[in-house]
Amino acid sequence: MTHHACPQKSIAIIFNDAKMLLNFRKELIISLIKNNFDVFCLCPTFEEAELSILSSIGAKCYEFYLERDGIHPLNELRSLTSLKKLLCQINPTILLAITAKPIVWGLLASRLTAIRYRVVLFTGLGYVFTSGNQKAKFLKPILVNLYRIALPLANKIIFQNQDDCQELTHLCGLDQKKVQVIQGTGVNLQEWLYHPPHLSPLTFTLAARLLKEKGILEFCAAAAYLKQCYPDVRFWLLGGLDKNPGALSEKDIEQYTQSGVVDWLGFVNVKEYLAQTSVFVLPSFYREGVPRSIQEAMAMGRPIITTDVPGCRETVREGYNGLLIPPRNINALVTAMKQFIDHPDLIEKMGFNSYQMAVELFDVKKINAQYLQLFSEGIV
Predict the structure, then answer these.
(1) 278-295 mean pLDDT
(2) How many CB atoms sit inside 10 A of residue 179's CB?
(3) Among 38, 238, 276, 363, which is disulfide-ready with 10 (CB 3.0 to 4.6 Å)?
């Protein structure tokens, strides 16, 4: 690889998954390039499709070594040295690291280089903070200690919701002046257009990766209960299987799919299905940043049923654009869904309110403007 002579404005974005980087940050990359930044995308691997899209918008892609789920010390050391080598070679003015391992190793590696301004972004606190299982309990103190070492090296620490911000600030003793909340990833409102309400058949849709923490089994159980009294109501599950430690298997949901209670449509173009959705449901008990799926459903004018947990609660004003329920509570979910079945007039009213909230809070142009403002401060 050749050494790039960088202009004054260059940024290295470190992420643990190229597909997700493209999915969640493409608009940000485009606006950085429009503002004359050289953009370097650093991920463990790139598929051909991702490379061609990123190159076509003007970003440069580099691979570094990362084990996404392991914690073997030698592998972690290899991540650190691989990132350090890459950052020395690219020599960007700004670093943006997203998700746990890129944040820790990106910050530590950048310390050994000439990077002037370091920004990290927490899009939620992730599996280690949400899952109560043994592995998570074992990993949490290790991760917190790594954050305590690495985060002081950051110039700015961005969170997507107030709860995550308070928890990590408290656990790691973060400097208040460095911390900022920028809600959500944002939605392109020219792509996710408002659709009039879909009322017949009444359709509840959950779109998510098939993880336990997303409340998928609760959604299926609520659907099974409601289907007995309201056989015409549809329940759609959109999303593919995942490799995450909290992933569900096909077997976990087949009792609901085979009996016709839930239509599992797999990995699809969500937009087409949201147009035929009445109410969007995400019964997550996961520490979300601010779920992008809800932001998209709101942009298309759908009422929301979600849980009163960090990240999700940011998207609903109770009774205005949707309903908040306690996590892991099937009865509360049934009651919330039933409210829309019994009062279908709420669908149009709350759906339009969702759309207005999306315009106000989740327009990707407004959100990316905040990031650009932040990065320009780092160059001065």
Answers:
(1) 91
(2) 17
(3) 38
Nearest Cα to Cα of residue 60 among 35, 31, 33: 33
Find tokens 């959500």 and name the residue: 184
- 8 Å CB contact between 238 and 273: yes
Measuring CA to CA, how many Å separate 80 from each of 15, 85, 120, 122, 143?
14, 9, 16, 19, 15
* Closest by CA position to 322, among listed 285, 292, 347: 347
Instruction: Please report, for the chain, how many H helices and E strands are present, in that order.
Output: 14, 13
**Which amino acid type is present at position 62?**
Y
Count the neighbouring beta carbons within 10 Å of the beta carbon of residue 330: 18
Extended beta strands in 160-229, E state: 179-181, 203-207
Q: How far is CA 272 from CA 192, 265, 348, 351, in A?
A: 10, 12, 18, 17
Contacts 24+ apart (CB under 8 A), 307-310: 307/215, 307/282, 307/283, 309/284, 309/285, 310/124, 310/161, 310/162, 310/163, 310/164
Phi-psi region of 241 (alpha: psi -120 to 50; beta: other; left: phi over 0): beta
Q: In sequence order, what DSSP letters do the residues of 85-103 get, joined into one string?
A: HHHHHH--SEEEEESHHHH
pLDDT of 286: 78
> Distance between CA 131 and CA 344 in Å, rounded?
36
Interval 70-115: pLDDT, tens: 778 888 888 999 999 999 999 999 999 999 999 999 999 998 888 9
CB-CB contact of 159 with 238 (8 Å): no
At 51-60, the pLDDT tens digits run 999 999 999 9
Q: Given this model, what pLDDT does residue 340 score?
A: 98
Q: In what order do the strands lie in the sheet with 263-266?
A: 263-266, 234-238, 203-207, 279-282, 304-307, 322-325
Residues 279 and 236 sit within 8 Å (Cβ to Cβ)? no
Spatial distance between the Cα atoms of 153 and 120, rounded to a whole number of angstroms: 10
Region for 75 from its dihedrals, namely left if φ exceeds 0, alpha if ψ lies in -120 to 50, beta otherwise:
alpha
Cα–Cα dist 56/50, whole Å = 10
Instruction: Please state, in angstroms and rounded to a whole number, the distance separating the CA atoms of residues 275 and 195.
Output: 6
Structure tokens belonging to residue 4: 């790039």
